[in-house]
Design a protein that fits this description.
The structure holds 2 protein chains of 2 kinds. By secondary structure, chain A is mainly alpha-helical. Chain A has 5 helices and no strands. Chain B contains 18 helices and 8 strands. Chain B is mainly α. The model of chain B has no long low-confidence stretch (mean pLDDT about 90). Chain B has 3 domains: about 90 residues, no CATH class; about 250 residues, Up-down Bundle (Cytochrome C Oxidase, Chain A), CATH 1.20.210; about 220 residues, Cytochrome C Oxidase, Chain A. The chains are: A mainly alpha, B mainly alpha. At the A-B interface, α1 and α4 of A face α6, α7, α8 and α9 of B.
Amino acid sequence: MSVALETLRNNKIHPKVFALVTACVSMTMLFAAFTSAYVVRQAAGNWLEFPLPTYFYISTGIIILSSVFLHGSYTSFKNGKEAMYKGLMVMSALLGIGFVICQVLGFYEMEAMGIELTGNPSGSFVYVIAAVHAAHVLAGIAVLTVAMMHAFLLPFKPTPARKLRFQQTIIYWHFVDILWVYLLFFFILQQT
Amino acid sequence: MAYVLEYDEDLLIKEQGFEDHFHEHHHGDKYQSSFINTYIFSMDHKMIAKQFLITGIFWAIIGAAMSIIFRLQLGFPEENLAWLQPLLGKWITVSEAGIGTLDPQFYYALVTMHGTILVFFVLTAGLSGTFSNLLIPLQLGARDMASPMLNMLSYWFFFMAGLVMFLSLFLSTGPFSGGWTGYPPLSALPQASSGSAAGMTMWIVSLVLFVVSVLLGGINYITTVLNLRTKGMTMWRMPLTIWAFFVTAILGLLSFPVLASAFFLMMCDRGLGTSFYLSEIFIGGAPLDNVGGSPILYQHLFWFLGHPEVYIIILPAMGLVSEVMSVHARKPIFGYKAMVFSILAIGFLSFIVWAHHMFMSGVNPFIANFFVIFTLIIAVPSAVKVFNWIATLYGGNIRFTSAMLFSIGFVSMFISGGLTGIFLGNSTIDIQMHDTYFVVAHFHIVMGIAAFFGMFAGIYHWYPKMFSRFMNETLGKIHFWGTMIGAYAIFWPMHYLGLAGVPRRYYKFDTFEAFAHFGEMNKFITVAAIIVFFLQILFVINFFYSIWNGKKMKTKNPWGATTLEWTTPIEGIHGNWPGKLPSVHRWAYDYGKDGIEFIPQYVPINENESEEH
């Protein structure tokens, strides 16, 4: 526990959670910049239209499901249901890995369509934006791995400190989930 | 006649203070128990502030020395520079006659590095990194930052960014040389110039590390300001320094990720063969494969950071100046709320003016109008601030300390530089002015010199808080007057050069008939720059000498200030206050109220007081 946090009084939101939300704002700005660049470049013409790979739709379903499972795991943790907590968390992490695999398969699908990374920027943008997003999901999987180590190595005890840690984990996981849903809608809406 | 209020500060904090049970825990084992965690991997915000400051000073010396070398080239293009060969090696070519000349390629590298170093490493990290870290917890009455760990990482990411940039100076192909803005295609193609090869790769890696540092710092500053204020410290009682650092952190948090995305696309273009910024380019007669990219896209992304960045630089300076000025004029800051709202307005407007850097890039003139209008509107909050500073000085009982002199100098610089901004903000006048020395003069005065003056004011004023000793005042005054006169001597003539159309970034002008007669003026500028450089060395000597040998600080509150940082023990302890945290009962600017010279923030409101803030 850091020093400064001990001065905490009656805050509605814990400073650590607040700091994480602030970090999510800056990550949102990163993707807002990418998608704005996409819009600006698209408006300039010479833009190749192509359908999004089907794997992207499958991956969207997977990541939403993963978020739901992790939320279930958190609720079980708070209510003292140990087996549910562990099981749902593992499922959620596996689905996270499944999401990344689907994204990679989606890249192969794009390549099979003839949309290459170095071709028209319309394709390059999809590759780069999806890849940077997948990197954020990988970071999330790392966080989930730590959470699983807590779940399986430590005795089951829903202390405030562990609740807080779990809360941070789900905030980040929901964030990358919502981010992908935004990106998918963005890609669909930009197709004319 | 003002009299000094008698009170027992320790007793007041004991009676009124906030008990956070800080000292019932043991921290000694984790904090400041060895040399390494006290001075190197420190998690104490006061030590991290000093680390930022001293690293900033290191970079300022390098950046300024670079400017002296290229000023020598501009002022004395025919002069023998062979004496620089031991330092610059192969970048000085010595002819058979023994005349040494600066390599033109390296001249561009010097200009580029000067800009990058000063903008990012000195005036962003060195200025807001130092004072946000030092003052946010101390002035808010917090034990430390919200996350001391992230705070430490913020410094070490900055250090790594600096290390990568420093190593790039020694590459055989030279550091990046395409201008501090790094416009493609020059920066995106390794074959475009020797500096665009490994030099550019390291430049981009360094700046990505720097972005991480700024974001980690910013997250911490925002969280601390919103969550860790002591009892009674409402937002409207915060000193203007904190308001400035807070808005600065928000600007950084929203704009630096955009720079990261610009760099990421650039890396793809450089390394993976994509065409985000490249289109139909011929190198050595052969066409490249890249088709369909837009170099203007990079400019939009870059300046979306780039413009807020200049406010990231100037807002902390404004905050420091407001605070220092009020303390040393012994008057409340004039128009506190107007000052806060103008900081917020400047922060907001900074996001919708970026294309005024791109008037000559082929932006649609109708869109340019939009940016002209918002650019000129920034003059309104800026003028409000200038008016308030002058009104604060008016009728004040001014103490002309070095800190105060630099604050007043700041206002002078900000007015001079701000006025030329109105010229440049007009897209029509910009057709003539863009890329000339007029632009160089404008931004050096308004965000270079002015930000430095704010920083110097802050250093002279808070030096006792950092090192428990004072800097030498006589040397400080020599430093001020020399720099004040010298800075104008350097940059004032550049306005004339610019109006005459002399372009910036040129290696030499003697082959241009139109500019050849400015040779003497360039000499004058160079001589002034050299003098000012040595005055800064004087400051650095004063700074380091005073750490060990300066006049000792005997009382906790030497300036008679109202803010909380002056209630902490002289030696500066971990957790900042030995017992309870002080609680706050009033705003930070109760000077000369009811005939009392100053009333610190932790003194409860007296029932006979005239008005409350």
